[in-house]
Design goal:
The complex is a heterodimer.
Chain A: H1 7-23, E1 30-33, E2 39-40, H2 52-67, E3 83-87, E4 93-97, E5 105-108, E6 127-133, E7 136-142, E8 163-171, E9 176-184, E10 193-201, H3 218-225
Chain B: H1 4-15, H2 21-43, E1 53-56, H3 66-73, H4 81-95, H5 114-117, E2 122-126, E3 130-135, E4 142-145, E5 164-170, E6 173-179, E7 185-186, E8 192-193, E9 198-206, E10 211-219, E11 228-236, H6 253-256
Parallel strand pairs in B: 4-5
Antiparallel strand pairs in B: 1-2, 1-11, 2-3, 3-4, 5-6, 6-9, 7-8, 9-10, 10-11
Classes of the chains: A alpha+beta, B alpha+beta.
Chain lengths: 230, 266
């Protein structure tokens, strides 16, 4: 039969670990890269498959966003490398940035609810609130606009009624980051559409990049709107 | 994180441990104190001020508008004769009705330090190794590295709209050093930002953390006769403040307004 540790020894050994575990969420901060084997994206189950005309309109909408340098938004920005997560040390907010032309995502983790729909002006990145479930950061986003690139990996598009839930979790001792995306939209999906990206932690010293966009560049515009090779 | 389950586990273990008399209690107090001290020593980084949150400018000098505030508080930059002459030529062209800048029409990214003097709030994120500023105006997030890295060598430096920024703490002041601007921007007080301009900023909380002071010092022998220094102060936004997005559509005819765009076929 095991004897319990004497109380002082137990306290010295165990208390710091317990206190530390109580006060700390995992630190997701850093630069994260997608590689060729980072995406697991099944096809989405759409309520009504898009017609050829609807697909063409959506492709044109997203192509125009690139041609005219609109904000690209979510989920497009999450599919670029490196994304950066900046997790405030005070625990109240987390940002995600991307090298493409899009505002930073603001994820409020201070316990606030979503801004009411009457007040909130929809945006390309939506209104995000987050909380921790054990070691998993759960982010809930609504309030999307039709700004930017609307295509969702696996099929379907972001709409004003989209609801995105993301679950961020470190793997492999913090060297990988799993993000499970689940899109719900009564106008788009027959069942919630779930896919996962597993990012690799970028090497130390990695820096943010700015893929700037110049809508007045005539050569660029010509390239994007002409028949390829012409 | 440790939830209710962890608390229960801790309680059960204490309940199952027999402590007798005042000696036991004293030992327990000693042990708790020692573990708390150990924990603090192990995990607490050097304490620096928490600058995080939304910050915004307000008119507390009676400027009437945000440009007016700058007029009142920012000294005129002391510019080289070449820059003075270039400014005069530009002003003359404008006086004749010529449009000399198309950034708004084409929704070009706003160059640093534009968002620092704009009316819109910006959000500061802080970790031990980096500070990131996210602006509502049309630009990229600004990254300030605090991990001890140096600026890239000139051969490796990629110019960007916000430049390359490294920072360190001097007591309670964050000192930020920036180079690597794309060039073409301007500063309050009539200064310019060129490709070789060097910026030093000093961020410091004031008024018990309700305000943030940022002292800017711009240096560039091709532009300034002496360092161009000024201070802007920002108010901490109300709790619950959230970010907007300032969208810009170059393909919207209303966006260009009265600006006559340069001809473009595509």
């Amino acid at each position: 039969m095991n004897k319990p540790l004497p109380l002082p020894l137990f306290t010295l050994l165990v208390c710091p670990a317990l206190l530390s575990a109580q006060s700390k969420s995992p630190d997701l901060s850093g630069y994260w890269e997608l590689r060729f084997d980072s995406r697991n994206v099944p096809p989405a189950s759409l309520i009504v498959p898009a017609t050829a005309a609807e697909r063409a309109a959506q492709v044109k909408h997203d192509a125009d966003a690139i041609r005219w340098c609109h904000f690209f938004g979510v989920p497009y920005m999450m599919a670029w490398s490196p994304v950066e997560i900046v997790q405030n040390t005070n625990g109240k907010e987390i940002a995600i940035t991307s090298p493409v032309r899009t505002p930073a995502r603001h994820i409020y983790t201070d316990g606030r609810p979503h801004v009411s729909a009457e007040t909130f002006d929809p945006t390309s990145t939506g209104n995000s609130i987050g909380h921790w479930e054990g070691e998993t950061l759960v982010v809930d986003t609504i309030g999307f606009s039709d700004e930017g690139i609307l295509a969702i990996p696996g099929g379907g598009t972001r709409t004003a009624t989209s609801h995105l839930i993301e679950r961020f979790r470190l793997l492999n001792g913090g060297q990988r980051l799993s993000v499970v995306f689940t899109w719900e939209d009564p106008k788009m999906y027959a069942t919630p559409h779930t896919y996962e990206f597993r990012y690799y932690r970028a090497p130390p010293g990695t820096e943010a990049r700015e893929f700037d966009c110049n809508a007045s560049d005539a050569e660029r515009a010509k390239f994007l709107t002409s028949i390829p090779g012409k | 994180m440790l939830g209710a389950g962890g608390d229960w586990l801790m309680n059960q273990r204490f309940r199952n441990t027999v402590v007798k008399g005042s000696a036991g209690a004293a030992l327990m107090a000693l042990a708790l104190g020692a573990s708390a001290s150990l924990l603090l020593a192990q995990s607490a980084p050097a304490k620096v001020p928490d600058l995080s949150g939304f910050w915004e400018r307000r008119d507390d000098v009676g400027g009437g508008n945000f440009g007016g505030i700058l007029e009142k508080i920012v000294p005129k930059a002391s510019l080289t004769p070449e820059v003075v002459k270039a400014n005069q030529e530009t002003a003359a062209r404008q006086a004749q009705g010529e449009v000399v800048a198309f950034g708004s029409k084409w929704c070009l990214s706003n160059l640093y330090p534009f968002f620092m003097q704009h009316s819109a709030a910006w959000d500061l994120f802080q970790t031990q190794t980096e500070i990131m500023q996210a602006a509502e105006v049309h630009t990229f997030p600004r990254h300030i590295y605090l991990d001890g890295r140096k600026h890239p060598s000139p051969a490796m430096l990629v110019p960007t709209v916000n430049g390359h920024s490294i920072g360190h703490w001097e007591g309670e002041t964050l000192v930020v050093d920036t180079i690597g601007f794309v060039g073409g921007g301007g500063t309050p007080g009539g200064g310019r930002v060129g490709k070789n301009t060097h910026l030093t900023e000093r961020f410091k909380l004031i008024d018990g953390g309700k305000k943030l002071s940022v002292v800017f010092t711009w240096e560039d022998p091709a532009i300034y006769l002496k360092p161009h220094t000024y201070e802007l102060q920002y108010y901490k936004s109300e709790p619950g403040t959230y970010a907007f997005e300032e969208t810009c559509h170059a393909d919207d005819p209303k966006q260009s307004g009265s600006v006559v765009a340069p001809g473009q076929k595509y």
